[in-house]
């Protein structure tokens, strides 16, 4: 699980152009939106693309996305649960 | 004292009609132009409703009957057809009899053809027909129209997303008021492209159903295409010309929402500023407005933002309002002008235009849009809103003479 | 004394050099592509605005030019955001980003339209970014023309002031396509032409500053 969260953090930084952030700056359990990294709605959409691109998982509705994208931890759990490889 | 600015001609081509009379007929029949695409090559052909002009490129070319239009982009074809109708409607016999300008607007330009070129070119850089990209620039449709009619005093193109052609109208009015031009053909055009469809889809703001502006269950917008043009002239020129006048371009206002690249502020700051400025220029109070043609895209975000702004400004005297995007779809760069034409048609025919597909009021708003086509309505002043990505918000006011 | 429009400040970003009011503030000719140069300038000027990195190259260029243009105004609280207008033009529109977006949808086997890129496929989003940063809510417009047109800029901006729509204006040319870019921005205010320091906002001066 730890390996996956570290990998995810790096992928998030790349996908969202978070140039001034290191993986060590991102708290696995902290909310990604509002507080925490302070990401916005376009970032959320890019994370949805990331899940599809890197993990083959498709999110169809905004509500579903909100739950899955809450934190790096929830994203990793979602990937583990639905892992298509 | 600066001249008043009057509308003397209107032209339109959209999903609900290929000219003014067809469009008016669709309004009376409450017939929407939404449906699945027939002409564009996209994986979403049978999935995402759009508002397409019901003519293929060959049919559009036939309408223009000009041999070089074989190479024109769909954008240029639509623009030329609508501009032609407006100029004919204004009964202009000699375009050079007065200082005449042209301001068009677009967001996609010739992308409809460029994306065909690029696909081939990316696969093999020796492939791809260059003729498909010569019309790419935003200014291409404008130049084609200017050349066709011999307009040379002033020609330019505005590109500010969904407020583009509303800004064309505003700018044209100012050029007349400043005595730089006597007459301006103003408007805009956009055609459907896979580029835009995919882009909006990636933002998850497209509805898989026909859009429902200002409805509690609304879930996004439907893209549309088309063109709208007005001929606007100065009071002084019309003293000599003696032509029927549709209405006066009485007010206009532009402001930046300064909130997000593509979303509107929750309290409708930009919308409020634009509407307030337009009222100020027109020297009217909110109670003077008979009908608002809202931007009303059907996205959860816009309709809440715009709805709140309308409530704030109009308080207890909110007039009839509706979004006509459930008729025409969201025509992006052309929307300001297309909706200006619809507003002017409404005023001219004493109609209040209905907001189709509305059933459930939004819980955050007191006001609800008008759902019936109301005839024999006394319409003095119409406010038309166009709010674009980048927070570029414009409001126009048309007044009965 | 008659009130004129004055070019209070101007900024130029060209050939990997950044000038403000004619003085070279930063340069790095070793960086071949605009993205790297703009990032280097961002770090040099300590801009501290992480959203910068989400912008496309065109918006980064326009944003950077404005940051430098407004340096003193912001420090001394002289910007009036509710009365500031923004008028920008260019020739490539958002073509640089249009291409980038198209590449995310051109291959059916690797089809991932990018929302973050799509958002920038309109040239006026650049103005939006500047407005968001400084809370500027005045009138804003974006024009596309073949080349820089000093006469047009003069007419359009003067008109805005004449109608009392704005009391300050950020105007200019911000163009970028591939490795080629060019940005010149002017900060315009009302003023009196008493001293030699005040450059009058008129086509000849606008051109002169642009060309030099």
Detailed description of the structure:
The complex is a heterotrimer of chains A (85), B (401) and C (212). Chain A is an all-alpha fold. Chain A has a single domain, classed as Non-ribosomal Peptide Synthetase Peptidyl Carrier Protein, Chain A (Orthogonal Bundle). Chain B folds into two domains: 237 residues, Thiolase/Chalcone synthase (Peroxisomal Thiolase, Chain A, domain 1, 3-Layer(aba) Sandwich); 152 residues, Peroxisomal Thiolase, Chain A, domain 1. Chain B has twelve helices and ten strands. The model of chain B has no long low-confidence stretch (mean pLDDT 94). In chain C, helix 1 runs parallel beside helix 2, helix 2 crosses helix 6 and helix 7 packs across helix 8. Chain C is globular and about 65 Å long. Classes of the chains: A mainly alpha (85), B alpha/beta (401), C alpha+beta (212). The interface between B and C is large, with 49 and 48 residues.
Largest sheet of chain B: 10 strands, mixed
Q: Largest interface, and how many residues on either side?
A: B-C, 49 and 48 residues
Q: What's the shape of chain C? A: globular
Q: Treating each run of at least 4 consecutive H or I residues as one helix, how many helices of chain B?
A: 12
Order of H and E elements of chain B = EHHHEHHEHEHEHEHEHEHHEE
Explain briefly what this protein structure is.
Chain A has 85 residues and is an all-alpha fold. Chain A has four helices and no strands.
Q: Any chance you could write out the topology, listing elements then pairs?
A:
The complex is a heterotrimer of chains A (85), B (401) and C (212).
Chain A: H1 2-15, H2 41-55, H3 62-68, H4 72-82
Chain B: E1 5-14, H1 20-28, H2 57-64, H3 74-89, E2 100-105, H4 111-123, H5 140-149, E3 154-158, H6 164-177, E4 183-190, H7 194-202, E5 226-234, H8 235-241, E6 247-256, H9 269-282, E7 291-293, H10 300-314, E8 320-322, H11 325-328, H12 335-348, E9 381-388, E10 392-399
Helix pairs in contact in B: 2-3, 3-5, 6-12, 9-10
Chain C: E1 3-14, E2 17-20, E3 23-27, H1 34-44, H2 57-69, H3 71-75, E4 84-90, H4 95-105, H5 115-118, H6 125-134, E5 140-144, H7 150-162, E6 168-177, E7 180-192, E8 199-200, H8 203-211
Keywords:
heterotrimer; A: 85 residues; mainly alpha; Non-ribosomal Peptide Synthetase Peptidyl Carrier Protein, Chain A; 4 helices; B: 401 residues; alpha/beta; Peroxisomal Thiolase, Chain A, domain 1; 2 domains; ten-stranded mixed beta sheet; 10 strands
